[in-house]
Structure prediction request, 366 residues.
Amino acid sequence: MNNDEYYMKMALEIAASAKGKTNPNPIVGAVIVKDGVIAGTGIHRKAGEPHAEVHAFKMAGDYAKGATLFVTLEPCSHYGKTPPCANLVKDSGIKRVVVAMEDPNPEVAGRGIALLRNAGIEVEVGILEKEARRLNERFIHNMTTGRPFVLSKYAMTLDGKLATHTGHSKWITGEQSRHSVHLLRNEVDAILVGIGTVLADNPSLTTRLPEGGGKNPIRIILDSELRVPLEANVVQVEEAKTIIVTHEDASLEKISSLSEMGIEIMMVPRTDAGLDLEIMMDELYKKGITDILLEGGSEVNASFLRAGLINKYFIYVAPKLLGGRNSLTPFTGDDVDTMDEALDVSISHVDTFGEDIRITAYPKSK
Prediction:
């Protein structure tokens, strides 16, 4: 690893600590180095607050003159809630800037880099770009599709079972795995399940961390017939907002009752496959939801899989064998005839939580 990679790796590690806290903004880390000494570091902590470069320059002070800035994302060149960072860098006396990746935001998209080069600053782009793109996968997806990034999370036994034939699934995995799920919830804007999960488990879908605190994501319930009981936890538990997605012909009386309880109703058209998930995703993004943790049952999982809307998988596997002809599997839906019709995924890495393992995977590009 050369010096540029070493300091960029440091900037990426700094940035990663803000995961889930900057939405809808990207995750960014910055490091200022002069004569082999780290003069300043910075992180973008939260949307609306100063960007990573601002914190790094504040720490470095006059030591920034003649130094090198390592930043995980191209300095912004437009006015948002904060002034453009590219101007700050240009006027700082920095001699060289090393950027991991260009900003996919159409309002930036290389303009910040061009501004710095036109000012006579040496700029190098692409150091640890793959790692930087992985860190900001949610933001890149948002900018390029205008939709939320969907993470599919499910737990299964070694023989691929999600629940018994009765729907009972507590608990497949151990306590450490369940804690890691709450850490995932703490990072996302929303959790999505189907009405089947609500009726079977009556979950609260909130974030519960032993150390306390945590962010409760918005709860999204797919319920085409508005079967959700008024006494369900997703209706009664007020720690988080709930959006129920249904179709345009749903019961006006039930809509009125739920609305009076503070539940937001989103109506989307029906398709032959069920609720129109494409339109739903567009509307959820307009509401500011940038990523969704999909915790649905096999029907909802299959609907998202069929629609090609899953961007990342977290697959928990417990050392148990369930068996049974009618035990539930993570994905249902229409049968296929040959293995050629299987959807390929690429395994990124495998982690261990107690006796369980978690596979992180991505759908392969077609």
About this structure: The chain has a mean pLDDT of 89. The chain has twelve helices and 16 strands.
